[in-house]
Amino acid sequence: MSAASPLVVGREGAVGIIELARPDKFNCLSLAVHAAIEAALDDFEKPGSGVRAVLIRAQGKHFCTGADLDEVKGLRSDPAKIDHFIRYGHAVLQRLEASPLPVVAACQGLALAGGSELMMACDVIFASTDFRIGDQHAQYGLVPGWGGSQRLPRIVGLRRGLDLFFSARWIDAPTALQWGLVNYVVEPDKLGEAALAYCTQLTTRSRGGLAIMKRLARQGMDQPLGGGLKLEQDVMATELMNDDVSEGLAAFAARRPPVFK
């Protein structure tokens, strides 16, 4: 993409890379950033693309410090434009959650407000030891606009979520790990390497199998246990017959690694 693009999009083997590229603005999120993320997902998800996992990372000192407030100020005079700004951001983050590809984030420095919302829409999170996360909306008379009010309490629990909203405080990487906001904490100089190695490992898995597990887990979270179990039963009955299962069983019997199409 061009030097003026808010993202650098590329590939490392079968891993699609989405790199936030506005370090001078702490990788804040704008309409152009969200559009570029959506376009990258469209390309990665195309049949025959060869992409089997997605890594979201960021240039500079911080992962993302929230929405582009300069853009927000310019939109506030037009209710239709500010409504589009909010709804489009929601739609793109929901695309990340609904993507059939595993989406991994590598987060350094700060993930604040909209940056934390972007992070929480990903599936697996790597954080550096200098990582801190928080929601400062209340400090400035704002409220979460891209799903934070819903995703954060679902991840950390209602009381912890409300505490972070009310206090606007930041928590560090060990606390984020303990609360389930991140999966792995590594040294800053190992962050990119560790996240990419994890994604590369995912590329050896059945793409269809990972997509189904992601869909079942995410859809099941919004249902009572019985409904989620019914989803699993219905999927399993048909998926046992596919080619990836045949290859997996053959590889197990031959004591070799499977090679999925």
UniProtKB/TrEMBL annotation:
<keyword id="KW-0413">Isomerase</keyword>
<dbReference type="InterPro" id="IPR029045">
    <property type="entry name" value="ClpP/crotonase-like_dom_sf"/>
</dbReference>
<dbReference type="GO" id="GO:0016853">
    <property type="term" value="F:isomerase activity"/>
</dbReference>
<dbReference type="Pfam" id="PF00378">
    <property type="entry name" value="ECH_1"/>
</dbReference>
<dbReference type="InterPro" id="IPR001753">
    <property type="entry name" value="Enoyl-CoA_hydra/iso"/>
</dbReference>
<protein>
    <submittedName>
        <fullName>Enoyl-CoA hydratase/isomerase family protein</fullName>
    </submittedName>
</protein>
<dbReference type="GO" id="GO:0006635">
    <property type="term" value="P:fatty acid beta-oxidation"/>
</dbReference>
